[in-house]
Amino acid sequence: AYVCMPRAADRAGEYATEAVARGAAAVVLVGVETEVEGVAVLRLPDMAQLGCLLRRWYGTERTSTLLTGITGTDGKTSVCWMLRQALSRMGRDSWGCGTLGVVRDAGQIESLANTTPSLLRLHALLAEAQAAGVTDLVMEVSSHGIAQQRIAGLDFAAAIWTTLGHDHLQDHGGFDAYARTKAGFIRTQQALGRPVIANADDAQMAHYLSDPVLRYGHGLYRTSLAMAWEQELPGFVRLNDGKREIVVEDIPLGEFHAENIACVATYLRYVRGVEMQALPELLSGLTAPPGRLEPLPTLGDWQVFVDYAHTPEAMARCLKVARELTRGRLLLVFGCGGERDRAKRPELGRVAVELANLVWITSDNPRGEAPEVIASEIEAGMPRPYAAEVHLQLDRERAIAEAVAELRAGDTLVIAGKGHENYMEVGGVRLPWSDRAIAARYLERKGYAQCA
Q: pLDDT (tens digit, 9 = 90+) per residue, 318-345?
């Protein structure tokens, strides 16, 4: 069968005819008016009805697999990764789905083309999870996934909203429309009576939220919070639900990861009914996902991190954490993706020179745009005179090599923007790429040279 969705309405007849020629026995038209000859045609008014059809087709109308949806500009992947781990520690067979791909366990990750895959892929994944006896499917819900109704027909047990910042604004018609898209997912879950968890520290998000919401936030004695958190030392976080206070040890570096742990704790405490005294065992030692302030091994007295930060808000959080860990200078290599939100480019430039000492502007998935144009738009946001030493090196490998060569005792280097990604997208072609592998190679050479 061939399914034609509303986004393909302009060429529905052409696509349907081609599908029939290739052997399609039936055509499903969703919100599309066109004539198709020679096969059975099922007309559905909207994506919601298609979602219902897919639940019936895959036999997931009644499923024991609980779906949890996580939206947010930043933090989705980390919360998804950590929540999957915590649920697994509870003895629940849990999968994750999002930016990293389909995560069946830490060593079995299947890549996806999108953070929130297509409607057909998601329903097939739910059916696969159900057949495998998976109890929990924790998934990232992107703004595109919401706007394009890729989650139609899915029944979520709970929803989480981590942050609200600047990303993909050009695809949604501005910040307000982007925020309302995410808020729409949250309000839908509220209307269905599902528990909603949200970050109380995000002032922008507050404008789009209304009760009932389970809020987590910074400040141990804020009475308005379902879960309060405080980080006094790296690697530890103190949590308080208003009745009891606990300490979670051995958490990933970064205050934003303490915030992510608080989010997971809120979910476990109020959605799954876990007692506070049981949380340390479930949360201590949770790892961060690949490419999230990921440290690289070095042979010298310096630190190097690879991070996925590609929004101004995430970059600021990443660099502030790196600064706290740095005795010497803070170095930064970063760029900005092509054919994506252009408004964030100057903001990234501003954050870079305000928080780092040495900056390399380079390429990061330029896609169909000229890298030098992207770099100039980044540079436009940097206040003059620069508060940092700025280098323009569009060859990303050379930029990394130059930054590594510049490292001195006590310095920290952050290579930002790509994180776990294993490709560089140029002119519509995805070329093999790894910030980790490239940095590791130059770090090894530098270490050996130091020892020689």
A: 999 999 999 999 999 999 999 988 999 9
